[in-house]
Design a protein that fits this description.
Elements (H helix, E strand, L loop, with lengths): L2 H20 L5 H11 L6 H14 L6 H22 L3 E2 L2 E2 L1 H4 L2 H17 L10 H26 L6 H26 L4 H28 L2 H4 L5 H5 L4 H9 L3 H12 L8 H10 L2 H17 L9 H14 L4
Antiparallel strand pairs: 1-2
Length: about 325
């Protein structure tokens, strides 16, 4: 199996389903922003992960297409509202919804997206595990809101521990990937052991994914990343790098720079190169890469609990692709 071809086939199916479900509906002031955010690109990892998880346990990935699209809509809902809270002007090289339209329209856009996502999930008539699927989806909405609040709380705090950071990214990033595989696996009537293994894989990949995001914010090509480099520093985000730097810095000038970052809840763009130099001096890029690889190793260790088929192999391929992503 050429996994890239299969991925693109899944991707085409996801895009087609999104388009027929959302585009060209009324009222335009609601559905145009939804269509806009849902057509802004991205790798669609979440719906495809949902389909692959279903394929791993059933070899019928397309049973999870609608649920995968629901999870992609949920993911994009979080982006719309996050951009309002972060006052972000750009995402994926385009104006954010609240800038292109208004904050009020962006709030309504996100609210409507939750309802649209729920409509795509199965009912009792369609699947015997509907209850656990709906419960997983609902729990994810709560988890991601809790994660966002923790992220916002960090902005006003002078001390944030690495354990607190991990708790935040678990809720804000990892739990959504867990929901993808749990819902996909249950649609495929997975065993308890298969669900547990897939959940652990998604959890570890989700944590690694967020540390990668923190890394790419400092190192990626701006055109590929779709937003300004060093945005987390400018916005005052307590990322893996800032927290580890505060833990490891010993020289007065370095401590003063970090204190300025914390005191001012971010730094002017002109300070980004100085912060990057500090991270390099503290060897944080290598430390972060080692941490990322450790989480991926934990994910790979769970494959022994899954049956071997083409979709299990595709899941392994996908994890390798994520581990080596550049944007």
């Amino acid at each position: 199996m050429d996994f890239k071809i299969v991925y693109n086939e899944f991707l085409e199916s996801v895009e087609k389903r999104i388009k027929e479900y959302i585009f060209e509906k009324e009222p335009k002031n609601l559905y145009e922003p939804i269509s806009y955010i849902m057509s802004s690109g991205g790798k669609r990892i979440r719906p495809i992960l949902t389909m692959i998880a279903c394929g791993v346990v059933s070899e019928k990935p397309y049973m999870a297409l609608n649920a995968g699209v629901a999870l992609e809509i949920l993911h994009n809902f979080t982006l719309v509202h996050d951009d309002i809270m972060d006052d972000s002007p750009m995402r994926r090289n385009r104006q954010t919804v609240h800038v292109k339209w208004s904050p009020a329209i962006a709030i309504l856009t996100g609210d409507a997206m939750i309802g649209l996502a729920y409509r795509l999930l199965p009912s009792d008539v369609h699947h015997k595990r509907t209850e656990i699927i709906l419960q997983t989806f609902t729990n994810e909405i709560i988890e991601v809101c809790e994660g966002q609040v923790l992220d916002m709380d960090f902005n006003s705090r002078k001390e944030v521990s690495l354990d607190e950071y991990y708790k935040m990214i678990d809720k804000k990033t990892a739990k959504l990937l867990e929901a993808c595989v749990v819902i996909g696996a249950n649609l495929g009537n997975a065993s308890t052991f298969e669900v547990i293994a897939l959940r652990k894989i998604a959890h570890n990949v989700g944590i690694a994914f967020q540390i990668q995001d923190d890394l790419l914010d400092l190192t990626a090509d701006v055109q590929k990343l779709g937003k300004r480099i060093g945005g987390d520093i400018i916005e005052g985000k307590k990322t893996y790098f800032v927290i580890k730097a505060k833990e490891l810095a010993t020289e007065p000038d370095d401590i003063a720079l970090l204190s300025k970052f914390y005191d001012e809840n971010g730094l002017d763009e002109s300070y980004v190169p100085k912060m990057v130099s500090l991270f390099e001096k503290l060897n944080l890029f290598n430390i972060a890469n080692n941490e990322i690889n450790n989480f991926f190793d934990n994910a790979y260790s769970q494959f022994e609990y899954l049956k071997v088929n083409q979709y299990t192999e595709m899941l392994l391929w996908l994890l390798n692709s994520i581990q080596n992503r550049k944007f």
